[in-house]
Amino acid sequence: MHLTLNKFMPLFFVFFGTMITLTSSSWLMAWAGLEVNMMAFIPIILTHNKLSNESALKYFFIQASGSIMIFLSTILLMNNHIMNSMDITNLLTSSMIPLALVLKLGAAPVHFWFPQVMEGLNWFASIMLLTWQKVAPLFLLTTYNLSSLFMYLVILLSSIVGAVGGLNQLLLRKILAYSSINHLAWMIMSTLISINILFIYFTIYSLITLTIILVLMSNNFIHLTQLMTNHYSLSLISVGLFMNLLSLGGMPPFIGFLPKWLVLMSLTSNALFLLSILLVLCSVLTLYFYMRISFNLLMMSPKMYWSNKSLISLKGPIKLLSMSPIITLPLMIMM
């Protein structure tokens, strides 16, 4: 994943555009930062294949649509002489801006573009789209009081779509895309609770996702069936991938359970029991396709068929068990 000068300059402006948005004091500056970020990210998407060109075009149209909505809302704010405030008082702008940000994030019900774009990206662009490209829109969602009904609808739909959409997928990038949509439900919920919980959730999610993609990229894994025939099924790296997948699914006692636990504690303290149950049930569904990947990784390779050397394969589960105290350590500290 080496960076040439042609890739480094767009990457610099991707980060620069996000920083403009994060430090902006007006919606016009926030919009300008989003535009810089979008235009700089497109060269990162583009490679020498047809799928990446299609993904870049789809990404541009979707992000441009969201930017137009934000810009029109900014014009309305200017007419109301409140441009220098993050308070939303106009009914139209209070509807358009959240919808535009949800569209840019790829959350349901405007999620349709996200798996399609992910399908045509290389792994480096996938890392960026799954992690850093969410920073600015999520930050803007925390800057003013949102319509609770609309955001709860987005949370419910994202949780369901992310869980159900990934069940029958075979492409690893699409699986991660639907997983991201499901995690967006939790992150958007975090924006309504506490920015500190959002920061913890996003940081843990990004680190786990980065680790998983680096392993998949180093082994050139693209399709789920490739995991069945790999020759490194019981290596320490594969065991680590197995644990990170379960952690991304939020299975206790892995570290990925921690941010979901924080969100659930806040929801239950506010008597939002039905929403908590739905989020947990959808997370169980996402955990199913994570476990399907893990099963293919550890159980279905040629090394797992019984042979004279089959006893060697027991070293993998032994390594897994030996690493369990390290995984549970963060949660033991929380206790």
TrEMBL record:
The chain crosses the membrane at residues 12-34, 59-79, 91-114, 120-142, 149-172, 184-217, 229-251, 271-291, 312-333. Residues 24-286 form the NADH:quinone oxidoreductase/Mrp antiporter transmembrane domain. One of its GO terms (molecular function) is NADH dehydrogenase (ubiquinone) activity. GO terms for biological process: mitochondrial electron transport, NADH to ubiquinone. It is a multi-pass membrane protein. Coiled coil: none annotated. Keywords: Electron transport, Membrane, Mitochondrion, Mitochondrion inner membrane, NAD, Respiratory chain, Translocase, Transmembrane, Transmembrane helix, Transport, Ubiquinone. Its EC number is 7.1.1.2. InterPro entries: Complex_I_Subunit_2, NADH_UbQ_OxRdtase_chain2, ND/Mrp_TM. The keyword Cell membrane does not apply. Belongs to the complex I subunit 2 family. PANTHER family: NADH-UBIQUINONE OXIDOREDUCTASE CHAIN 2. This is NADH-ubiquinone oxidoreductase chain 2. It comes from Tropostreptus droides. The lineage of its organism: Eukaryota, Metazoa, Ecdysozoa, Arthropoda, Myriapoda.
